[in-house]
Amino acid sequence: MSGLRLEIPDDHDYPAADYMIIWLDDHIGQPDQYEVMKKAFTSNIDSRHQTVTNLTNKDYTYLIGAQNPTHIELADIPMLLLAFDNPLTCYDAFEENKDRRIYFITSGTLGKHIIPRLIENHTHLFKDPITKKPYSSMYIFCGNTAHHMDWLMDYVEHLQTFNHEKDLLTRLIRDVAMNFIEQSEYSLKQALARYKQSKKVLNRYLQMNEPCRKDLEHVERRIAAIEKIINPNKSDAYAQTDDISDNTTNDNEEVEDLRLSEACS
């Protein structure tokens, strides 16, 4: 089924999915295997409907080795799914999706044949691009972990081992959530740096033009608010009066406050 293409209605737009699950196991297509994890992945695999439903065992049979990923949702998070029972074709999928954030689920038996090659040739897929810290984004599902300890220990910083489906699934969802948090904090720091740059430019503008501090005061409030989120113990007069997380501000006021003021005439 390597040439399978899933047809999706032309008028159906999927949310952007930068997150991908690659699942490698001999038994994915068997009806009595991995029932908990299969029920956790929902998708619109039927091109005649836009209703999101659980993938069936028959769906997984067709998905194994498919060249095109399937759009799924995991805990309401848009993701992509590729399923394999062959380590060779699975390995190629990492090369083809090297720009995505990949969560890799594999059995111990098949993982032994692919993980060493992945770490050797695609280490960047398993490290944070900013901090360079290793991701623990390889999930080994195995009934007898001790049987694989001879090779697992060489890659322990990238691996997590499980012998219960529910434990693996729970950890996977938590790891995705933590990645969102890390990205959000990084975005806040980027925003803070940009606001500080704009403050320098506005200060130069004030030196060249007639005094007008409305825009500068707006930027200073944004800086204080973001710094209060990043460093909640830091006291600042602006943060006390203009906290962007303040629930007492109504929606219209908050939107208006986030806009730069009109330039002084």
Protein architecture, described:
With 265 residues, this protein is of the alpha/beta class. It has two domains: 19-163, no CATH class; 185-257, no CATH class. Helix content is 43%, strand content 15%. It has nine helices and eight strands. The chain has an eight-stranded mixed sheet with strand order 3-2-4-5-1-6-7-8, sandwiched between helices. Helix 3 packs parallel to helix 4 and helix 6 (165-208) runs antiparallel to helix 7. It starts with 18 loop residues before the first strand and ends in an 8-residue tail after the last helix. Residues 1-16, 44-51 and 236-263 have low confidence and may be disordered. Residues 237-265 are annotated as: Disordered.
- What fraction of residues sit in β-strands? 5-15%
Strand order of the largest sheet: 3-2-4-5-1-6-7-8
User: Please, what is the average pLDDT?
Assistant: 76
Tell how many strands the DSSP assignment holds: 8
Label the overall shape: elongated
SSE topology string? EHEEHEEHEHEHEHHHH
Please describe the biggest sheet, giving its number of strands, its sense, and whether it closes into a barrel.
8 strands, mixed
Could you say which structural class the secondary elements and strand pairing correspond to? alpha/beta
Q: How far apart, in Å, are the first and last alpha carbons? A: 67 Å
Helix content: 40-55%
Report the radius of gyration as a whole number of Å: 24 Å
Count up the helices.
9
Low-pLDDT residue intervals, each spanning 5 or more residues: 1-16, 44-51, 236-263
Number of domains: 2
Region (Disordered): 237-265
